[in-house]
């Protein structure tokens, strides 16, 4: 028998940054989010290169039984009265679940399943279970970067198109120093 010792990849829990040379990062800018925000004029006024969020993902084989881990870093800001948010998605394989863990900042996780919506507060140390068949989106209602670690099955996939037509049933808008959920009617 051979025995090896190795240093694993690391995550700086305070900053949400991976300490691993082999992770991949992708930044989503305002220009990539056409049709996402209710106030289309406010969105059009944003420079298209404005970063909204970055996702860092550790590599893993894309096969049954494997897990992926990634950190979403969502900037603070608003488009009109609506807070910066991720595009949101359901999994291509709808039966796959996911976990989010809040690392820094404050915001909300919007969960939608079969027309029912739930908003969960995201903060350092919060743990969020995203059940199968559930659309989900992060929303930064704070004044600093919102970061959350996600762990999901490598075979789950992301389906952004499923939400293009109807979107989520709730929008989160600034309301004084806080926020308010506005139910969207079809």
TrEMBL record:
GO terms for cellular component: cytoplasm. It is an enzyme of class 5 (isomerase). Pathway: Carbohydrate degradation; glycolysis; D-glyceraldehyde 3-phosphate and glycerone phosphate from D-glucose: step 2/4. GO terms for molecular function: glucose-6-phosphate isomerase activity. Pfam families: GPI. It catalyses: alpha-D-glucose 6-phosphate = beta-D-fructose 6-phosphate. The keyword Isomerase applies. It comes from the Bacteria. Belongs to the archaeal-type GPI family. This is glucose-6-phosphate isomerase. The lineage of its organism: Bacteria, Pseudomonadati, Pseudomonadota, Gammaproteobacteria, Enterobacterales.
